[in-house]
Fold this protein.
Amino acid sequence: MAENLKPFPISATEESVSSFTTVGRRKRNWRPVGLVLLGSLMVTIAEILLKIGATNPRGIALPAPLDFLSIVFSFWILLGIVAYVASLQLWLVALRVLPLHLGYGLSSTVHLLVPIACWLFLHESIPAGRLIGMLFILCGTLTLGQSHK
Amino acid sequence: MINFLNVCLLAISQLSLAAGQVCLKLATDMDAEIEGPNIRRTSWFVAGIASMSLWFFVWIHLMRVFDLNRLFAFEGVSPLLVAVASALFLAEKITAQAWLASILLGIGIVLVALF
């Protein structure tokens, strides 16, 4: 019994160590991470469109209890919703593979992309404090990416 | 404008966002196990989408009240909120490095919004 078992654990350990390293490397799959980052870009586009839509006067006004829904009839808002739906689709595909805390943390790159987009398209300035915050988000994203197995 | 109602709406938006994410994760986790339609998975999807819809309309309303960049300050809590929710309800193992990252992201989001 002991003789039979003896060679087995040794080879198993060697096998499991080698397979762990190769599988570990192969399993560090960056595709879902890429999908989350692409989703962040879609959300950024959506936020800009929604901001333009929310500040523009609406074409159709619904009566009192439903008046909050009349915002939906704006062209920009509709485009923004399309961008949001696209990002949600990307998110659901990525979520199958990634743990929620990891995927959600990575989607915080939105807060890095939104100030850049606001600066580019809405002509908002980026003061030093916000730039420091953006660096924090970059560090947080890289730290979280490092913890990705 | 910060008043009691808007603070409540901000809290509702963040909690419904975290709850929606947990529901969607529970639903997509079942994708790998179950082929075809399934009532439990559909229920999690519906709950997730309902929760996210609540967040969406509250968020749209708050956008009219706050500037876009100010509004985002309150999303600083969300990486931590979602990390806590995934530890509590999804039993995800969150490494010290991932907690640190969530805190960095939270500080970053608040700084980005406040300045």
Summary: The first helix of chain A runs from residue 2 to 5. The two ends of chain A are 38 Å apart (CA to CA). Confidence is low (pLDDT under 50) at residues 1-24 of chain A. Chain A touches chain B at residues 47, 50-51, 54, 68, 71, 84, 88, 91-92, 95-96, 99-102, 104-105, 108, 111-112, 114-115, 118, 122, 124, 127-130, 132-141, 143-144, 146-147 (CB under 8 Å).
